[in-house]
Each structure stands twice: as C-alpha cells, then as structure tokens.
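Q: Focus on the chain.
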Amino acid sequence: MKTHVGVDLHQRFCYLTAISASGKVVRQGQVANQAAALQHWLRGLDAPRQVVVEASGFWPAFHRAARSEAERMVMVHPQRVKAIASAKLKNDRVDSATLAHLSRCDLLPEAWMADEATQQLRLQVRLRINLGRQRARAKNQLQAVLHQEGFIKPVTDLFGKRGRAWLQGIELSPAGRLVVDTWLREVDHLDAEIASLKRELERMASQDARARCLQTVPGIGAYSAMVMLAEIGDVERFPNKQALASYAGLVPVVRESAGRRKRGAITHQGSNSLRWILLQVAQVATRYSPAVQAWYSDLHQRKPAQVARIAVARKLLAAVWALLRHGVCFEEELFARGRAAAPASRKPGCGKVES
C-alpha cells in the first residue's frame, strides 16, 4: 500500500507528515533540509512512497535531496490547494497533513516540475532580466541626483559619449559628484555583465532549433526567444493556446453570476517573466511589422492603447504556441486578417521543432 507524504517546505527545514492508504498518520516531524536527513526520514516509511510539496523557490533542492527515496514526487499549486482545502488553523503540521490527505484522495492540483535543463536556462535568463532591471534602477538613481542638483540633461542618452562628457563637465556638489560617479561605475559594471550574458544567450539561441524558429515571429530576437523557451518549458503541457495565455497571465478575469458575465483586467498570474517579455515583444512588433501594426491600429480605435498592446501580446503568444506545438510558421497576411497562424502556413524547415 502506498505511503503518502506531505511536505511543508521552508528554507532551512521542512515539516513532513506521512499517512497510510487508510488515512492513518504514520509519522510526523521536522527535518533539516539536508539530503542525508531527508533520505533517512523517508527510508523509515513503507514503500512505495509519494511525496507532495508545494511550488516554491526551494523545491529544486528538495527534489534533488529526496527523490532517491520517493517512487513519485509531486509538486502542487499553492493557491489551488488553498481553494480545495482551506482551514482556519494554519501551521506546519496542518499544512503537511493536508497535502498528504489530498494525495491519498487523489485530489492534488499538480504543477509542472521543470527538468534540470529548463531550470538552468531559467537561472540564466532571469539573471539577465534582473541585471537589466538593476541597470535601469541605477540610471534612475543617477538622474534623480541631477534633478536634486538642479540640472536638466541636454541629450537624449545620458550614458552615451555626449551624455558622459556633459556629466563630467557640470559642477555638482561634493556629495552629488560622489553619487553620480558611483552610479556611473555601477552602470559600466552592469553593462559588461549584461554584454557577456547576451553573447552567451545568443550562442545558445543559434544552437537551438526552437529559438531559431521563434525568431521568425515579429519582435522576437535571440534574447526574447530564450526567455520564452525557459519560461514555457515543455510546450506539450499546454493543450491549447488559451492554456498558455492563462499561464502567462494574459487572459482577463471573468466574473459570471445569474447569466451575467463581466470581464476585468488580466489576471497577472502565472509566469511574470513570460508576460513581461511578451509585452516587450508586442511593443517592438507593433513598430516594425506592418501586419502587427495594422492589427494593433485597428484595435486601438476601439480600445485603449494598453489593452490593445496586451491583445497583441496574447495573439503573438498564440503564434508561438502554434509554432512550438505544431510547427506552424508565422504568416503576416494571416495575422492581418485576424489569425495568428494556420496549418496552411507550414513551410519547409518549419516542422514541429524539437529541443
């Protein structure tokens, strides 16, 4: 009979509850997040063992430590677990027991566990995203000091040659000069790190057939293609384009009652990085692709600019799904007519792409 183990995972330790197939609590306790300790605790349970853990930032390390002693390991969606089994009393013991009982009743809202290659790619692309945000923050901090000192920049690019020459020539207070020079050094350091990561991601994209095909979609370059591949992972887990759009948080909230349906803003749930890169791609595609620009302009006549931009991002994501799942290439004419892609648009070299 299978033993079901619920895990309430924390950074330094986890609380485990093991129950039998009949629902009897076999063992409970707190264990340090160390491979030897976890394996010893699980080894004392009857096999086969099914271990259940909520999705969190610590799950990859826990998975590597405990997988040798678990016949099956399941990761679940935290919000959906709460929807299924909400409780007034909440602590480590109750949370781990809840997961174990849901496992026994086969009511687990399973989440996808990314494979090792996808985890590694996510680490790289998310580092690139975070470095870009840190660079933007550093530039904003520098410009805030200029405003405080009463200077208005005479150039568009403050960090180009003309902008830097102007920064060196203005008379700042001693503290203001210290801050400006410090942020300039920080920007230079981040520029070097970002350039190095960019070269590596471009190299990886050139060797990945999926990334090369994605770059046929307007607005998608090597960097954005790698971000999409990292965040989407196995496209087979999305049965249709609506499921992928929901994962990206690009679908509207729908409230329906008494036959009345109301649509709100997008959910903002799922992958923040995927949603962010798609909005960036939509902005570029709207500028440089005639078909996307025409479709956006037509929608913008009836909807606000931000709503139209989100719609473009969702439509481009549908094209990405069709390309990765079925090998359907992007067609400008079909997009302009209101369709992202169609089987008839299959071209040589655009068959279903494998990693």
